[in-house]
Design a protein that fits this description.
The protein is α/β, with parallel strands linked by helices and 303 residues long. It has helices at 11-19, 31-38, 54-60, 80-85, 98-114, 116-124, 151-162, 189-195, 214-219, 237-246, 265-269, 284-301; strands at 2-5, 23-26, 43-46, 67-70, 89-92, 143-147, 166-170, 185-186, 198-201, 224-228, 249-254, 273-275. The protein is built from 12 helices and 12 strands. Helix 1 (11-19) packs parallel to helix 12, helix 2 (31-38) runs parallel beside helix 3 (54-60) and helix 5 (98-114) packs across helix 7.
């Protein structure tokens, strides 16, 4: 088969696909050129940069395209329903990056609690702000609210319990009132927002708009720490900035942004923001697992 890889993939996986006899092309296409290009490929592998929408699928009609594979968890950069309605299967790699994203969420929690990001920046500027950043908080004994209790949320919950945190979880879809998973308890959205010291988002984006709005922030405890490694659209960035300025939100750890690359300079520059450029799955181990899973999916097409 001819396989298009638009946003990069683990080199060992590409070598494996080529060893299996596939023609693998590594090339990024701008949106205006993508649909026409897809006609010449059986499979396209994307990550988060490439967006495959209905117009691209329409342009690819009559060509070879049979499958779109998202190397990662979410598929909101693909019009999944429209693709399937037009005979194009859509797959993802939901398990491969669970560990890496959960670890990054925990890293942001620690960075926010102990001023790791801003204190490091000031030191590089020749400052020694020991007094200013000597009022950190510990994670032990604090209450973590996990908003979105899927694979990543569950893994973060286990990590947080291991660090002595009390963990509550909320999921928008119906699940039992009590999660029998290492003492992690399912609660309502209101209770999670109102009672947690840390809140970490692990939910897909919603057509209804951001999960975290000014109204939702108003429900939270004063001095809450907010972490988002899910989707940039889940947080109203203007509302978050206002809450950081007022002190309602003590700190925020952000790996995903409304616009990527982000141009929200005020949020980036805020001293209580720990920021990363959407690197949740960017570990050597995760990329190897993603590549291996993609090879398995493609091999299964021919079985």
């Amino acid at each position: 088969m001819r396989i298009l890889v638009t946003d990069g993939m683990d080199k060992s996986a590409i070598e494996r696909l080529r060893a299996l006899g596939h023609d693998v092309v590594e090339q990024f296409y701008e949106s205006d050129d993508l649909g026409k290009a897809l006609r010449d490929f059986d499979v396209v592998v994307v990550r988060s940069k490439t967006k495959i929408r209905a117009n691209h699928i329409d342009e690819a009609k009559g060509g070879k395209l049979k499958m779109i594979i998202r190397g990662g968890i979410g598929v909101d950069n693909i019009d999944v329903v429209y693709a399937k309605e037009n005979g194009v299967n859509v797959r993802n790699t939901p398990d491969a990056s669970t560990e890496s994203v959960a670890e990054l969420a925990l890293a942001h929690m620690l960075a926010c609690a102990r001023y790791v990001s801003i204190s490091g920046c000031t030191m590089r500027n020749g400052q020694w702000e020991k007094k200013a950043y000597g009022k950190g908080v510990e994670l032990v004994g604090k209450r973590l609210g996990i908003y979105g209790y899927g694979r990543i949320g569950k893994r973060l919950g286990v990590m947080a319990k291991g660090m002595g945190m009390n963990v509550l979880a909320y999921r928008r879809s119906a699940i039992p009132e009590s999660i029998d998973d290492a003492g992690i308890i399912y609660v309502t959205e209101d209770k999670l927002l109102q009672t947690c010291d840390f809140i970490s988002l692990h939910a897909p984006s919603s057509a209804d708009g951001p999960i975290i709005t000014a109204d939702k922030i108003a429900q939270m405890k004063d001095g809450v720490i907010l972490i988002n490694t899910s989707r940039g659209a889940n947080v109203d960035e203007d509302a978050l900035l206002a809450a950081l300025e007022s002190g309602k939100v003590r700190a925020a750890g952000l790996d995903v942004w409304m616009e990527e690359p982000t141009h929200n300079e005020k949020l980036l520059a805020h001293p209580h923001v720990s920021c990363t450029p959407h690197i949740g799955a960017a570990t050597v181990e995760a990329q190897r697992r993603i590549g291996a899973e993609i090879v398995h999916i493609i091999s299964s097409m021919q079985a």
